[in-house]
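seq as requested:
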Amino acid sequence: MAAFRLCVLLCWLSFTAVAQPHAGSGKPSDTLDKEFHRQRREVLRQQLPPRSVAVLFASPVRNRANDVDYYYHPDPDFYYLTGYTEPSAVLLLFQSPQHVNGKQVQELLFVQPNDQMQELWNGSRLGVERAEKELGIATLANTDFAGFKLDTTNLQHILIKELPHDVRDDAADEADLFSLLGQFKTKVKYPANFNATRSMLYGIVREHGLGQTEGVAAYIQEAMQREPELKNDKSLQGYLQAKDMRSRTKAVAAIPNHKLDAFTLDLLLDGMREVKTEAEINLLRKAAGMSAIGQIEVMKALKPGMSEMEVQGIHEFVFKKYGAQHVGYPSIVGAGNNGCVLHYTSSAKPAIPGNELVLMDVGAEYLGYTADVTRTIPVNGKFTKAQRAIYELVLKAQEAGFQQCKVGNAFNAPHQAAEAVIADGLVKLGVIKKREEVQRYFPHGTSHYLGLDVHDRGSFGPFQANTVITVEPGIYIPEGSPCDKKWWGIGVRIEDDILITEKGWENLSKLAPRTVAEIEKTMTQPSALDGFKLPALEH
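struct tokens:
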């Protein structure tokens, strides 16, 4: 029985090995260095309110099935501030110096200690000494967090993000994320009824409640629909019921100001991550470039009868060939009517007919930063008349969106420009009768921020220099739509990654052909995969 138990343990360890990345050396030369992360922490610290601490946790390890975990992906904010990529970690960032173990520190990182057995199976860990040296942060083992005395009596603000509620408890690990969260809640006397959404809404009312009344009220009401218990909050109801500036001012002043704050840290990180440094822009430029080349290689290799999964595989092979560790999001490869599903990720069509379009929304993630590039191409290499009409309308809308990518313009300026073009164009084509019907076939926004997340953090305020966004108009006409059948099954999206500069804008994904002529010409070129044949599998 003892031998059997040992066998089970060893098998379990071998399976969990796929979940953790290796923290060894041999990193690419353009990996963000510790000075980048130190500067990010300092910028954040300078914005912290007096007598405050910002507390951030590493991402949970996510279970795929049974004893197999997903490959670990670090929390983007945690990586942004530390460069640390392992699980079960905590960062404390103090606004003013604190005395810890006889030293004066303003930041403290708790990490996984070295463990010979775990590292044998799951890869090397930085450990405490290497983390302190390589990351440039005062570091303790996460096993020390339980005994660490966080003096909350001298703190006026404890800034957090919403804590995860679905973390597994590894009973064999006294310092896994489940344990660290529990220990933190004990230290700060975390209220059992604490609601992060309520805390966020309180912050929004204090920040914007007198200047953006309608927007704030709409946001509160939307949150109450998602979480009905918020309807019982007297402070929020007091704000909603205020009908004039005097009563509204009184309602804002009455909003509770708790020590535990789940609003301010998100607000500060939104502003920081919106504007990229030169090093971040270089990583996004690489991610966009390899994503564009993936589109080119598929254009050359695509043949009728290929599966959606095959097309996806070509994109992702190109990314790996260039050194991308992951895709930035689940790849979207939808042919025909599948292209009319905005987030179609199953790639289930086994053979794509030659008369269909295939929409390919695929982005490489390089050293944590993700591109987001979409092209829509005809499987047989030639657009039909109907396909071309819709495609060129989307292309025209994208060009209109590009022209709005200027410092100082409103975030929704590209969308307004693109939507106006599509509305007019669909009326002219007879797909819709009134411009107001445009959202039936163009149901999403045109832009989002790009960075460590594909839908990255940002303020959604006027455009600033060194911000990277997408411009991605689309038209989707699923089968059964109330229009001429010749349009059915046509889904087109064209998406590029745009860097906003002081002088205008730059298309980071410009290598990928966009016009009908460019696409059709590229699809006539030979592919390196033309002679790639696999033997048939035996039944």
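The two ends are 39 Å apart (CA to CA).
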